[in-house]
Amino acid sequence: xxxxxxxxxxxxxxxxxxLWAGGSQLLAKLLHRRGIRSREEIEQLLNPLQQPEPDFxxxxxxxxxxxxINSALAEGExxxxxxxxxxxxxxxxxxxxxxxxxxxxxxxWHIPNRFSEGYGMHWDRVEKLAQTGANLIITCDxxxxxxxxxxxxxxxxxxxxxxxxxxxxxxxxxxQAIVNFKLMPPGHPSRDLPGVGTAYIxxxxxxRRHDKKGEDLLDLVALxxxxxxxxxxxxNRRLYLQGLTLLNQxxxxxxxxxxxxxxxxxxxxxxxxxxxxxxxxxxxxxxxxDGSIAVNLLLAPDKERATPLAxxxxxxxxxxxxxxxxxxEKVSPEQGKPLVAYSDQWHQGVLxxxxxxxxxxxxxxxxxxxxxxxxxxxxxxxxxxxGINIYSVLQRCQDYLDKFGGHxxxxxxxxxxxxxxxxxxxxxxxxxxxxENWTPPPLSVDLVVxxxxxxxxxxxxxxxxxxxxxxxxxxxxYCSGLALKSVRSVGSGHILTLGDRWRSFSAGLWNRPAxxxxxxxxxxxxxxxxxxxxxxxxxxTLEAWWPGKxxxxxxxxxxxxxxxxxxxRQLLRQFPKAAIYREGVQWQDHPGSTRNNxxxxxxxxxxxxxxxxxVLRQILAMVEPELVVLGYSPVRDSxxxxxxxxxxxxxxxxxxxxxxALAAGLAHTEETILAALKLLAVSGIIQYQVxxxxxxxxxxEGTKIKSGSAQEKLRGYxxxxxxxxxxxxxxxxxxxxxxRP
Length: 741
Ligand SMILES: [Mn+2]
Prior knowledge:
This protein has 741 residues and is α/β, with parallel strands linked by helices. It has 25 helices and 25 strands. The protein folds into 4 domains: 147 residues, CATH 2.40.50.460; 190 residues, inorganic pyrophosphatase (n-terminal core), CATH 3.90.1640.30; 106 residues, Diaminopimelate Epimerase, Chain A, domain 1 (Roll); 186 residues, Arc Repressor Mutant, subunit A (Orthogonal Bundle). The strands form 6 sheets. The protein has a 5-stranded parallel sheet, sandwiched between helices. The longest helix has 28 residues. The chain is globular and about 95 Å long. The structure holds manganese (II) ion.
């Protein structure tokens, strides 16, 4: 792989920085390299909840807004909320409506339709709001550039308060009040608040004036912070962490229902689950139908009303995934090849997501086009890699375009049908030429570690940087001389076993070619923790790898001590320093490890017979033993019952389980697990997807297992395992020794 890396320079670390970082040398180093060096900045990042809340109690724009809202409340005027169709706009609308209703306000709200009205205030809609008798419009997540529409509203007898977080234009609209924290001086901790954060501050101050509290709206703010990809710095960190507590209690019926259909367990919510499970379902409403569905869900007063709406969002999100999958199937992806494609069959609301998927998987720009839903020619969405400015590419083709806008990484445009062939040819030519000269930007490494440093303590220390995301990325680690112990292919990628003589960890590698097993590699990766039934292990995600120069000696010969059928307690006493392999439900609370977390050792004690030769090879590669003690007895196997039990447990634990952990937990192969999942899926008992080594499960109505080819296939795999185990019980040591890492 040709991607370069930028290693961090060694620095002389001021001793007090370590102190500010809570005594962690590692975090202090990392923060120093990221330019976070003052006590204030470090403490704001690591201990956001101990920071003072910024005081807005006499901020003039906020005072002006509060006075106008208070008079509307006092006079019983009708207040119209003007929102947006993305998560930020939807949560902001919910915050404003909830708070104003709590104070007895006469409130209506509007979420624009993405296709017929588009983003921001719409001339006709302003007129319709006037016709309902509204006297005051409060915008959220929009409005700061709607000069004409605001003037029109005022002409129709309405006042306008803007709450927004988009970059203010040079000349501000003539609204009654403008609350936009981008107007605060640079460096103010609240400058990066999203639309929902801005609306929240206004409502919190309003509720305070009425001796009420607004803190129970913070779950909505936390959700908007993650979904709108605002910098995870300053005031945002504090609001996020406060809101996360509420999200984990699932206090709002709408969010409780949404967590349930997303298989996210309250208590286990984090920035990844919000970003990848919750936000896409809320966004699906505006992309495929109407953002109002999501506002109605978040406003729902009880579970009965929330559940059907959450299901509707879940179905829209499934449809969205299906559409982007079908787009991907038609475009024949190719690594490093820019994509320009049109089809009248594609859905306008999904083009951007599909283009983004292509770009991140293939590391190349993507332009997707379809017919406009309004019947006005063709619309397109473009995404690009760092270093190729897609906005200026479109600018060079502007002769063929009606409208275009965006920024270097993402843009949208429209054109007339007759210009499609010439535009396609021109833009493909430009992108191919740009790609020829393009090299991926180097990965900026935060920490250089040794194989022995990659352990759960490290994962825990780094977790103090959470939430990670925009402007506070997950730390990138670099490690060279990692022994490559095994490589397995799973669905969309590979799982590698990496480590050194003494320990190993699993690592996922997606959308990139995998190395051949054996030898050593250098790799850049992030780390997290994988937990299965209380057994914790390190999980790494590789961003890049290089073949190592020196090939470490992999021990592949070993002696065997045949203790088959002996008592395991006795064997533990006899081989106190051995790495102990045991898997399966009946061994859960016993000493030892699974194929996923075995340590290196001179002695390997096998207390269960591995399910396949491949698993035995993996175990030998991880432990590199000189002596293998065969200490297993025949196993009673009731696979299907145990598998169903494990699934039940997984549903309770949130419906997401890693494939390798589940296979190890049940002492079977990953092929068997996948065949069993398939059988339950064709029987209508569950629905599942395998994404990046994780199984995402959903319960269905079915209860009876269907006979047929899926059942035959599972029987076949189970038969292979029991035949291999029978062989392990009878074969001679010399025969078993022929299996090598
Ligand atoms: Mn926004």
